[in-house]
Amino acid sequence: MGEFGGNDYVFLLSANKTVDETKAYVPTVVSAITIGVERLILLGARRIVVPGILPTGCIPIMLTLYASPNKADYDRYGCLTKYNGLSRYHNDLLRSQVKALQKEYPYAKIAFADYYTPVLTFLHRPAIFGFDGSSTLVACCGAGGEYNYNPIAACGFPGATVCADPSRAVNWDGIHLTEAAYRTIAGTWLHGPFAEPPIRSLA
Question: Torsions phi, psi of 140, nearest 5?
């Protein structure tokens, strides 16, 4: 069910909303996701995975568009703190709604799937997962700049190039993760610990 929410917040921010103004929309977005899950259950769905959103402040598009001269605006991984705070707020609200749905519909198997924590884990210990620790915040496919993201020369457009080994990169095009990153996250969702409960247990 999703991933919903990430684009909503990116579009609001690109419309010159502040992070605090954007946060005001989070309950509405989470409510829409919750209503959608409930409708699926009432239509007969019995196994549903509800994913949260990525740590927005760690994504090259956000790091490029909202770069700050103030080092205090970044965390120890180099991510923008306040944008990650927005992601955490969304994920916390969504997780609580999933728990409420689990109680209300005990005959349905519903899992909350965490994107946020695995990505931070990649940044903290990249070598364990086979990623290049020098470029965890850099897009594999892009057209230059500190994070290899250029909004007017995005991946696939003239001027963009691809890194030598995408399997060693966390981010693909400045917005989406690489297949390698998604594959690792999928494993943590299937078997744990980043799905509540693990998807294999929904069978």
Answer: -70, -40
Map residue 49 onto helix, strand or coil.
strand
Q: Look at residue 15 and tell me if it is in a domain.
A: yes
The predicted pLDDT at position 3 comes to: 79
- Do residues 19 and 13 lie in contact, with contact meaning Cβ atoms separated by under 8 Å? yes
Tokens 């005001």 -> residue: 24
The tally of domains found in the chain comes to 1
Average pLDDT over residues 121-125: 97
Q: Is residue 1 part of a domain?
A: no
Q: In a 10 Å sphere around its CB, with 0-12 CB exposed, 13-18 middle and 19+ buried, how is residue 166 labelled? A: middle
Alpha carbon distance 152, 178 (integer Å): 21
**If we measure between CA atoms, which residue out of 23, 176, 131, 146 comes closest to residue 86?**
23
Owning domain of residue 116? 6-202
- Say if 16 falls within a structural domain: yes
What is the DSSP-derived secondary structure letter of residue 200? G
Is 146 within a domain?
A: yes
Residues 77-85, mean pLDDT to the nearest whole number: 98
